[in-house]
Hints:
The protein is globular and about 65 Å long. The protein has helices spanning 20-28, 47-53, 61-67, 79-82, 101-110, 131-148, 178-189, 201-210, 222-231, 252-257, 306-327, 329-334, 337-340, 353-359, and strands at 2-5, 32-36, 56-58, 70-72, 90-93, 113-116, 170-174, 193-198, 216-219, 234-237, 263-266, 287-290, 293-296, 343-346, 349-350. By secondary structure, it is an alpha/beta fold. The protein has two domains: 2-120 and 306-369, Rossmann fold (3-Layer(aba) Sandwich), CATH 3.40.50.720; 131-304, Rossmann fold (3-Layer(aba) Sandwich), CATH 3.40.50.720. Helix 4 (79-82) links the parallel strand 4 (70-72) and strand 5 (90-93).
Amino acid sequence: MLVGVPKEIKDNEYRAGMVPTSVVELIHHGHEVLVQSGLGLGIGVTDDDYRAAGATIIDTAADIFAKAEMIVKVKEPQPQEIAMLRKGQVLFTYLHLAPDLPQTRGLMESGVTAIAYETIYTPDGVLPLLAPMSEVAGRLAVQAGATCLEKDNGGAGILLGGVPGVDSAHVLIIGGGIVGENAAYIAKGMGAEVTILDNNVPRLRELDNNFAGRVHCVFSNKASIEKYATEADLVVGAVLVAGAAAPKLLTKNIISKMKPGSVVVDVAIDQGGCFETSRPTTHSDPTFVVDGVVHYCVANMPGVVPRTSSFGLNNATLPYILRLADEGWQQALADDEGFMGGLNIHAGHVCCEMVADAHDLVYSEPNQFLI
């Protein structure tokens, strides 16, 4: 198969869909890889590194989209990229379609087969291609929140860990999944007082055990969200409903009751955000203020640490890329129900039920398109 890897063009996005070690594996399997010139500059990898791995360097994204049978990316295609996709081509990347009707319609109109990293699952319910970026985003969320708490960034002027004789900051994490656990790990490591809210009692027990009781693990409901959010200096939104739009758990009313100069970081913004006041921001303009509360809602948070993120992501995506290239998308998905869960769009049909529900579109059962 002819696999193409264009540079990312989203604001301040430097991650690479494939690193040289991934290229080596594809070449070893008998495939050809086209890499856009400059793909790896943001992660410290040169065109010569890709050439040494066996890739062919292509100057423009247009040439890659025109030639490749499968496009491998990191972030969702931007409008100019959607315009270059074609029927019969496979797109393998993060999509996050539930909150994004224009992208959904654009992919439908292109005729492409779009497989989303974030809705692939394993038999035990793990989202293996979302997990590495959730780890990064969870850890970054606290770093970003700590910076936003500084006075010259609009915050209350609070040091997350405090100092002897002065209270540490109170950090609330809504959601106890991978993002939430990693956020708690960093927040506790920085000396903050940390509370995790989740509505899964077995998961709360697991987190309590993992943190040896050093983190408060509390059942999540409307009352507990309001209580802890209005007491918090930093709130991290770490809620995920796979493939669907995130629920709005922090309402405008609660935001209005929070302390002036407090900070909210919405890691769920890729799926529409879990705070009612959230809207997507970028690394070049990451924050805005509502009712005195600083909002950090960058939609590609891991892009700010692209080297760590790219290698971590490739560790997870490579086995799936190889299966798509070796077997073809229909056979690869037919052999693995969890992999089939990644099929979001095919030839104008919406094959992900959560996306169809989010946009009131007709859902097409993916099995009908497989071998």
